[in-house]
Amino acid sequence: MSTRFDAIGLVVSDMAASVAFYRRLGFAFPEGAEGEGHAEAPLPGGLRLLLDTEEVVRSFHPEWEAPSGGGRHSLALRCDSPAEVDTVYEELVAAGYAGELKPWDAVWGQRYAVVHDPDGHGVDLFAPLAGQQ
Q: How big, in percent rounded to 5, are the helix, strand and coil portions of the chain?
């Protein structure tokens, strides 16, 4: 088999808001991406994060409807330290993004928090606690 994992795709309702959110987290979307129907940012290891507007998805799949409810999926972003988890979470919440879980020390040995992007996609922030990997 020649398939390989290449990209993570998210359907977004507002490209400009989504690009702004993910740029705050360090994703390198190209200049002008906020005005496009499709945008890509490179990820480590050659992967890509793909954003498509609902309009673009409906242009090739007219019956498509956005899923409802939470917990559909999440992106997990590793921070350099437990303190950075707290800082990033607070900065995002202060900027108006919804915090789902405030930073806490998880039983599995990580400082962990969850915020939502503009469409409610979960973004997990984590870092190993001292003595953990």
A: 25, 30, 40
